[in-house]
Amino acid sequence: MTKRFGDFVAVNGxxxxxxxxxxxSLLGPSGCGKTTMLRMIAGFEDATEGRLLLEGREVGGxxxxxxxxxxxxxxxALFPHLSVxxxxxxxxxxxxxxxxxxxxxxxxxxxVVRLREMAERRPHQLSGGQRQRVALxxxxxxxxxxxxxxxxLSALDLxxxxxxxxxxxxxxxxxxxxxxxxxxxxxxxxxxxxRIAVMRGGRxxxxxxxxxxxxxxxxxxxxxxxxxxxxxxxxxxxxxxxSATLEVxxxxxxxxxxxxxxxxxxxxxxxxxxxxxxxxxxxPTMPLPGDELALRATVRGIVFxxxxxxxxxxxxxxxxxxxxxxxxxxxxxxxxxTKVELRFPRAAARLLPADPTLPAD
Length: 361
Ligand SMILES: Nc1ncnc2c1ncn2[C@@H]1O[C@H](COP(=O)(O)OP(=O)(O)OP(=O)(O)O)[C@@H](O)[C@H]1O
Ligand SMILES: [Mg+2]
What we know:
Layout lengths: L2 E3 L2 E4 L11 E5 L6 H9 L10 E2 L2 E2 L10 E4 L11 H11 L4 H14 L15 H13 L5 E5 L7 H18 L2 E6 L2 H7 L2 E6 L2 E6 L1 H6 L4 H6 L4 E11 L2 E6 L3 E6 L10 E6 L5 E3 L10 E13 L3 E8 L3 E8 L12 E7 L4 E4 L8
Helix pairs in contact: 2-3, 2-4, 3-4
The structure holds adenosine-5'-triphosphate (ATP) and magnesium ion.
The site of magnesium ion (MG) has 2 residues, from helix 1.
């Protein structure tokens, strides 16, 4: 699908398949087109080009209320004068279901969102998280094919948001309904999703499970957006047999396996390593095993962060990296100015296309 507003392309040729019963997240920075995607699925916007199929049926031109989807917005407006029970019963009442059926469904929903004891309260007598659960129950009771959620937790404070993340995931598993969840919070997406689509500038850069996206990002943007990523500029000096030899700084070369990206000899690329995969070796070191890589570096800064020490390191040619060293049993020799050898598994290093549009760290 493509969506243009005048000359502006908000969604740019996105093609994606969301599976039945999965928790699917659209993740990306502000303005990348997440809400526009959701509004097209809901039917509040029509695609300028392309097709949308729900359960295999094309739904272009079908109005929102005739699509079997429900949306939960960030400002989940509940009816203030109605009790929790009446709020939840609203959809089925409008649909004209028999009252016995409504009764059964409401009880089940209040059970699912754990608000049975609060059924007779009004929204103003509830906490933010409880109100959010009423909004969910009110949408889920209509048994939609998919529930669309646009940053539904962003109004909640951090602690409550974390609790609601787990709660939402539990509810989704319990009811088995497809959730399409919009967020710009990577931690939120990692916590809840079966699969994540990382968006940037109206396009999807990568779709995959949380571990896949984190461990095997396909672009520098995805690597940076999910977690912390070191992106070391390297020159490709040889490519053969599924691996590439890279020049790092002015003396060393490293060989890494290729996965999806076929670099050209002579071009610049980015070598990605996560901070927790870098091991700092001080003093005389053991010979380097064949499945490991090493770089020489100087410690430029150490910040205590609880479980880890965040170490800034300068490798040759003035390039910098971040390593997370365990904070317990800290080596007394580890200090600013210490020369170290950085070791990391060859498998933890990924070669990605250079991206000049990304800011350097
Ligand atoms: N009705 C509209 N008319 C013109 N431009 C629009 C319209 N709706 C959205 N846009 C533009 O399309 C782009 C994508 O908007 P969208 O709301 O989908 O972003 P988003 O990813 O949801 O961002 P956020 O995280 O800030 O909510 C933005 O640049 C926005 O300004
Ligand atoms: Mg939005």
